[in-house]
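To the wet lab folks,

You asked to see what we're planning to order before we commit. Fair enough. Below is the target structure as tokens, and below that is the sequence we designed to fit it. If anything looks off to you, flag it before the synthesis order goes out.
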């Protein structure tokens, strides 16, 4: 149990990239470039840190191991669709992460009380709904890439190609408002801003296109869901052909 808790703590610590980027951007004039106050920039990156903590998905790494080792086979004999097992495991891990994230936020407030803020009830509820949607969207996107495990024993390496656009276009390393207009339009045409920028803005109380953000989450989930189903059906035929 101690090792498991230590692993969760290390996972939580590995998600501090937004706080590092806050240190990079806070004295660079990025806030004025985005039309924000310095306090809004701080709140955005702290909110992005929270979003990052509770929307992280590592499905492909577990799924790849289960496919290669054959552990997936007994799951297929059970009445529950195996992907729900992975989904539930992610939710359970997120629940165990709550106290570690709370401790990290308390440590931040001890260093600089201005880093934290009290969102209104409306901002909190809308932000949590967007955060949940961001997690589901990331899970669907990685489910789709996980289907490559049926064809490749190193599909997780291919998934790392998605990390670059995720970091750059989601608003994790820099607010989208600091990008040139053409890059902003390109980013908004992808699913990545809905994974970090949208819920982080809601939680931090920044101006946001509420309808557009939720619509983007819904549309991308509707696009990815049938693709995941198609990939699962095709992959299972491939998995059976391998004699598993």
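Sequence we intend to order:
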């Amino acid at each position: 149990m101690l090792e498991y808790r230590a692993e969760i703590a290390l996972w939580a610590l590995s998600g501090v990239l937004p706080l590092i980027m806050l240190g990079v951007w806070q004295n660079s004039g990025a806030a004025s470039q985005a039309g924000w106050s310095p306090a809004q920039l701080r709140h955005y990156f702290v909110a992005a840190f929270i979003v990052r903590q509770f929307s992280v998905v590592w499905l492909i790494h577990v799924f790849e191991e289960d496919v290669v080792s054959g552990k997936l086979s007994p799951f297929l004999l059970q009445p529950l669709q195996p992907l729900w097992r992975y989904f539930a495991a992610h939710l359970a891990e997120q629940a165990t992460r709550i106290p570690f994230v709370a401790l990290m936020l308390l440590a931040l407030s001890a260093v600089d009380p201005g880093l934290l803020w009290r969102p209104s009830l409306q901002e909190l509820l809308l932000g949590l709904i967007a955060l949940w949607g961001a997690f589901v969207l990331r899970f669907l996107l990685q489910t789709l890439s996980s289907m490559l495990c049926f064809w490749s024993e190193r599909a997780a390496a291919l998934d790392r190609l998605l990390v670059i656009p995720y970091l750059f276009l989601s608003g994790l390393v820099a607010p989208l408002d600091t990008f040139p207009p053409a890059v902003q339009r390109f980013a908004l045409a992808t699913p990545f801003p809905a994974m970090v920028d949208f819920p982080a803005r809601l939680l931090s109380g920044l101006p946001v296109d509420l309808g557009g953000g939720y619509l983007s989450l819904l549309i991308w989930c509707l696009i990815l869901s049938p693709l995941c189903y198609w990939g699962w059906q095709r992959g299972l035929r491939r998995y059976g052909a391998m004699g598993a």
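Structural context that might help your review: The CA atoms of residues 54 and 91 lie 9 Å apart. The radius of gyration is 19 Å.

Thanks,
Computational group
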